[in-house]
Amino acid sequence: MLQPENQSKKYESLFSEIDSGRTKIPMFQRDFVWTKEQTAQLIDSIIKGYPIGTFIIWKTHEELRAMRNIGNINLPEIPKGDAAYYVLDGQQRITSLYAVRKGAVFNKEGQVIDYKQLSINLDVNPDVDDQVVTIEPPSDARYISVYTLLNGTVTEFAQNYPDHLEKIDMYRKRLTGYDFSTIIIPDYPIDFACEVFTRINTSGTELTLFEIMVAKTYDPESGFDLANEYKQLIEGGNEKGLKDADYDTIPPSTILQCVSAYYFNQIRRKDILKVSRDDFIAAWDWVKAGIFSAVDYLRSKLRVTVSQLLPYNALLIPFTYFFVKNFDQKPNVKQEQLLNQYFWWVSLSNRYSSGLENKVAQDLVRIDEILKGNAPSYRGEEIQLTLDDIRWKWFSTSDSFCKAMLCLFTYSTPHSFDRNSPITLDNSWLKSTNSKNYHHFFPRSYLKKHDVPDWKANSILNITIVDDHLNKNKIRSKPPSEYMSEFMDENPEIEETMKTHLIDSLDDYGVWVDDFEKFIDMRGKRVIEEIQKRLQ
């Protein structure tokens, strides 16, 4: 990389390059947020000769997503063949100064903000008084707007300000003659340039990889804008979206990893950044179709009907990879069996809790074998769960193993205790451990009264999924024998209902005598049976 170049730019030079389209303000998902008060203080500082900081500018032939207008002022495109100069540090300052120079008008949430109103009080001394620049014309003094000062002619000044020509000339020279300190960083790779941006702009808040890729893949000619594409992928609109399938919690990082897996069989940051704009755009429709097919498969075949139940968002990567590489064809019987086995192996093994990038790369090799119809090897990584492993497993919706268990519980389409009707699942009520839809079959408050410690009461094996109103209005802290007797009167098919919750017999499971330990053991054995079937 070349060393940064220190340059000094005059006012006209700095802003003529914006007018020509060469200097751009990149859109790393951060809007122009400065107030007129801040802008007035900035101009006042320039008039007084105070330092206002350095502009750091990245010179590159990369074409990033950039601001297309400042208020009502449209900005030109970069001239063909020219390098672009992206402002990495000083975006708010340069936008403010340009808005004043052009007399820009902003409409923010219905409020009109007119930068032509910023004015200089001609009746005060700039070298003595605190601030000579006001956000609107003063009512009790002679003034000139900063816009008029910068854009007016000598004739206009002579006609309208005959008694203040000397002072106007001084202000104009101070503004247009100010030496703006700039540092040019030439031809940095985009990830290094964005690292510079992150360090100097966000006060320790990292610029996300998605924000970088939004800027990098923006293509004005084709109209491709990753920020809009991701929004449409999630929310739909004219087309279907993941929200329609209750998979709207998939983060943008996972989507980027799906694209990288398609090209490189790797999902590391450096691999994602290697994807060129043209390659990313070329792959987008294929990968998006693969994501939809993967979601359809997870919902229909594995019955993971909402994304909040996924043990890992990253599970979407190998499944998307399968469908993209399989040319969006449905898996055959053998492939389906192997995909299902793979899902449960990952979900129950805490596999992606660490070393995600390397493990996904290894698993893409396994998916390649499944594509060929061959069983991948899990040698040395087999899962051997026993009842002791899960009996007192603490229930938490942030725990991947617990989410895998919830997937197991929802596979049989759990039915409502009182009506024997399927329970509707959606992401809105599956996020929190204390959601009223997660029901402790033996209520924790009931167990507490009988001196059962909470580390036992909150066992994942004590969790069932119920309608919200049952927990609030009917179950509360009653013992199972009591509230299940009431449901038996309402629901003559109660025994069949409970089988959808992996509770095969209310009698054998100790429900009628409120035997908590027996319930945990019996349900645990039933769960182990289901797990073993899926891992074979």
SSE diagram, text form:
Layout: E1 5-9, H1 11-19, E2 23-24, H2 36-47, E3 55-60, E4 69-70, E5 73-74, E6 84-89, H3 91-102, E7 105-108, E8 111-114, E9 119-121, E10 133-134, E11 143-145, H4 146-151, H5 154-160, H6 165-176, E12 180-186, H7 190-201, H8 209-217, H9 226-235, H10 252-264, H11 269-274, H12 277-300, H13 316-325, H14 333-348, H15 356-371, H16 387-390, H17 400-411, E13 438-440, H18 444-449, H19 454-457, E14 463-465, H20 468-475, H21 480-490, H22 494-499, H23 516-535
Parallel strand pairs: 2-6, 3-12
Antiparallel strand pairs: 1-12, 3-6, 4-5, 7-8, 9-10, 9-11, 13-14
Helix pairs in contact: 2-3, 10-12, 10-13, 12-13, 13-15
